[in-house]
Amino acid sequence: MKVLFCCDDTRPEPWLKGLHDALPGAEIAIWEPGAPQADYALVWAPPQQFLDEQAAGLKAMFNIGAGVDALLPLRIPAALPVYRLEDAGMAVQMAEYVAQAVIRFFRGLDQYEADMAQGLWQHQRNPRRVDYPVGVMGLGKMGERVARALTVFDFKVNGWSRSPRELQGVQCFSGMDSLDRFLSETRILVNLLPLHDETRDIINARTLALLQPGAYVINVGRGGHVVDADLIAQIESGHVSGAMLDVFREEPLPENHPFWKQSRIILTPHTSARTLAADSIAQIVGKVAAMSRGEPVTGRVDLRKGY
Question: Residue ranges of the D-isomer specific 2-hydroxyacid dehydrogenase NAD-binding domain (predicted)?
Answer without folding.
Answer: 102-272
